[in-house]
Design goal:
Elements: H1 4-7, H2 9-27, H3 31-64, H4 69-99, H5 107-131
Helix pairs in contact: 2-3, 2-5, 3-4, 4-5
Length: 132
């Protein structure tokens, strides 16, 4: 039984919710939205770490069972996009942490870029799961 597909939804949901809070914070001066986005990004990073670790564990287990290289090859694009999204959200979190979570011009585009990447990674991950 693979565990990675069950836990990967948490960082995706947390990061998409953070993008929603960033959009609401862009339209409002209330710092609550930025604070919520900050915590959601941080929790998403913790969830992503768990998800990545379980993904590698599942991959080694599937390879030990003799799954062909086609599945692994198809999964590579998905994993690179997911790593890219994680890097964008790490940059997002570090930006917020270093600036005291102050509003900045690059914060919303960074948040939306991460959201686009994580949606693409989720879509491709679902395609890989469908093949399995």
């Amino acid at each position: 039984m693979l565990i990675h597909p069950m836990v990967v939804h948490f960082p995706i949901a947390l990061w998409l919710a953070s993008a929603l809070f960033d959009l609401m914070g862009w339209r409002s001066q209330d710092p609550l939205y930025r604070r919520m986005a900050y915590w959601l990004v941080g929790l998403g990073l913790l969830g992503a770490g768990v998800s990545i670790a379980l993904g590698w564990t599942d991959l080694f287990a599937v390879e030990a069972q003799g799954v062909g290289t086609a599945l692994v090859t198809r999964h590579q694009l998905h994993s690179w996009i997911a790593y890219g999204a994680t890097a964008v959200y790490l940059a997002n979190f570090l930006w917020r942490w270093r600036t005291g979570n102050a509003a900045g011009r690059a914060l919303l585009p960074l948040s939306l870029a991460g959201a686009v990447l994580i949606v693409a990674a989720g879509y491709l991950g679902a395609q890989v799961r469908e093949v399995m």
